[in-house]
Amino acid sequence: MSEEFRPPVRFPHLLAKVNAFLLVAVVLIGAFVAIVAHKQGWFVNQTMIRVITPDALGISKGMPVKLFGFTIGSVKEMQLVNGGVDVQLAIMSEHMPRIPRGSRARFARESGVIGASVIEITPGKPINGELVEGEQIDFDRSRGISEIVEEFRRQAAPAFAELKNALSQVNRSGEDLGVILSALRGEMEQLPTTHKAMRRLIQNADQATQQMNVTLQSVQRASESVERATPALAAKLATTLDSIDGAVGQLRQTAAEAQDTLRGVRPMLDRSESTMRDAGEVFSAAKRVWPLSDAFKETPDAMLPIDSFDARGAQGAGRP
Amino acid sequence: MSALRCATAALLTLCAGCAAQPTAPLPPLSARTADANARAAALVRAGDYGGAARRYEEALALARSVEDADAIAASAINLSVVYQWMGRDGSARDSLKIVLDDARRPFSERRRLQAEVRRAILELASHDPAAAAEWAARAEQRCQRMACELAPALLNIKSQLALDGGDAAGAARLGQAAADAARSRGDRPEQANALRNVARARLAGGEHAAAVAALEQALAIDHALADPRKIHADLVELARASAAAGDRDAARGYLERAQTVSLAARDPRSLEDMEAQIKLR
User: Fold this and answer.
1) Are residues B207 and B241 in the same domain?
2) Which of A164, A195, A299, B107 is 20 to 30 A from A212, comparing alpha carbons?
3) What per-residue confidence (pLDDT) applies to B157?
4) Is residue B159 part of a domain?
5) Based on the domain organization, do B213 and B243 belong to the same domain?
6) Which of B226, B245, B262 is the last residue of a domain?
């Protein structure tokens, strides 16, 4: 009778199209998630280390952590603890051998004072060994711009003071220069007087030279007189020497006569010495004859007294 | 006339009996040594110790040149005395070593004894009682039973050593023995020294009156000997004994007399000692 009723199809193959759309959406969502996970480092093995900073000003989660300018991790977590803020840094494990114990972290900006904030790691000495998961490194708080400006002001202040002094000295030198100029002016005013005095001095020197010439002429005359008198003096000296020579001859003759006299007296002296020796022996013998022997007792020994008083030393009354 | 001849002959015989054999004249170098010693003794009497030392050195050199052991020892001992008076204790010690340290040279026992006693005196004066006792002991061995001429001096040294060692009773006993020995030998200087030692020992033992009496005896002897340094020492000890006995006026009088003596003797060391004593008053 009749054909099977078929409803009209407004959207043919709609189901296949919906399924295809859903599949594409799922793939896109999965790719997005994968990209995000890759960016978040979910597929990279990370090691957590910690720093304690007095304050977390300028530090935020996700802030890059750099070593020698290369990003090796990021700020993972921040939480308040006693005495500051505990900041956890997620470091890519492949870079951990480059961060030995004793390394230090500091807050820095990539372009000096301005620029993106980063945590910069300064590595310590390798002999200290590698850091391990959860270990803490020291944190150096970087100076803010106000501190930098304050230090600059402190270092520049003496230089400014020196500059100020130098300027004041220059000012005073200007004053001294005025004084010097006024003194020079006074000297210049006195130059004519000095010139007159110099002229008088030259005239006096001229007169002195003339007087010296006169004196030299007198000296020349005196030397001529001496030269004339020298022969007469030499003759008189020769006469005197002849007289002395005669006197010496007489003295020599007298000495020879005295020597002859002494030669004659010598036997008499020898005889008197012999006589004296004999007299001494006679006297010595007489001293040993009684009754004179008692009066002339000789000490058997010419010894100084050995006196125990000398043992008193400084207590004694000193020398005899 | 014949009586006159007989008297003359008898007188000549008597004179001939009294005459003696003239002594042989000394050899020239020995005569020079004796002359140097005599001149040195004269210089000591004149107070010129430097000149005396030079003369004794000359005598020592002359004696050495002829190896006259006795003259060497005598000159060395005399030199030690003069050097000590000059305050040159080291030189005095060296002089005595010539006798004491040379066992091979034939020095007589008498000279060796004299040198040992001098060395004991020197060490005691240098405040070395141990060395002084050692040398006194050596001398005592040589002076057997204290029969030698230096026994009084040796006993006086031992008395001073005992007193310096704090043994007042022993010092008094030894000092008395020294006084007796000196008196029996007619050694008046050592007798006065002994009495002074006895007095110091008595004073140390608290017997003030006995000390004063002994010092008065010593002073009388020293007046007779006319030795100003000993008179000064007696007067100072008398002042000390009088002060200890409580007679301050007498002590002051003795001190003034001692000061006068030291000033007259021009002895600066005594004067310094005196000034210290007077300040102690």
Assistant:
1) no
2) A195
3) 94
4) yes
5) no
6) B226
Q: What is the DSSP string of A67-104?
A: ETTEEEEEEEEEEEETTEEEEEEEEEGGGGGGSBTT-E
Tell me, yes or no, whether B125 lies in a domain. Answer: yes
Choosing from B81, B114, B136, the residue where a domain stops is B136
Of A306, A308, A313, the CB nearest to B114: A306
Give the C-alpha separation, B188 to A141, whole Å.
105
Contact call for residues A274 and B25 (beta carbons, < 8 A): no
Check whether the bond before A64 is cis (ω within 30° of 0): no
Which residue in chain B has the smallest CA separation from A306?
A: B118
**Is the domain of B242 the same as that of B272?**
yes
Whether residue B276 lies within 8 A of chain A, CB to CB, comes out as: no
Asked if residue B3 is part of any domain, the answer here is no
Going B52 to B71 to A298 to B22, the CA torsion angle's sign is negative
At A277 the three-state DSSP class reads helix
Q: Rounded to an integer, what distance in angstroms lies between the CA atom of residue B242 and that of residue B208?
A: 7
pLDDT value at position B47?
Answer: 86
- Quick one: B164 and B131 in the same domain? no
- Token code pair at residue A220: 């020349």
Query: d(Cα B14, Cα A33) in Å, to the nearest integer?
Result: 171
Query: pLDDT of B46-70, one tens digit each?
Result: 889 999 999 999 999 999 898 889 9
Q: Is B6 part of a structural domain of the chain?
A: no
Minimal Cα–Cα distance from B169 to chain A, Å? 19
Write down the pTM of the prediction: 0.49
Which residues constitute the domain of residue B251?
Answer: 227-281
- Per residue in A151-166, pLDDT (tens digit) is 888 888 888 888 888 8
Closest residue by Cα to residue B95 from B108, B82, B107: B82
Contact yes or no for B85 and A319 at CB 8 A:
yes
Number of domains in chain B: 3
Q: How far apart are CA A226 and CA A232, in angstroms?
A: 10
CATH at residue B148: 1.25.40
* Residue A285 parent element (H or E): helix A145-287
Q: Provide φ and ψ at A8, rounded to 5°.
A: -70, 140
Question: Which residue type sits at B152?
Answer: P
Tell whether B38 lies on the interface with A, counting CB pairs under 8 A.
Answer: yes
Q: A144: pLDDT confidence band, cut at 50, 70 and 90?
A: low
DSSP labels, B52-68: HHHHHHHHHHHHHHTT-
**Residue ranges of domains in chain A:** 15-44, 47-139
A310: chain B residues, CB-CB within 8 Å: 81, 84-85, 121-122, 125
At B7 the three-state DSSP class reads helix
B136 at A interface, C-beta within 8 A: no
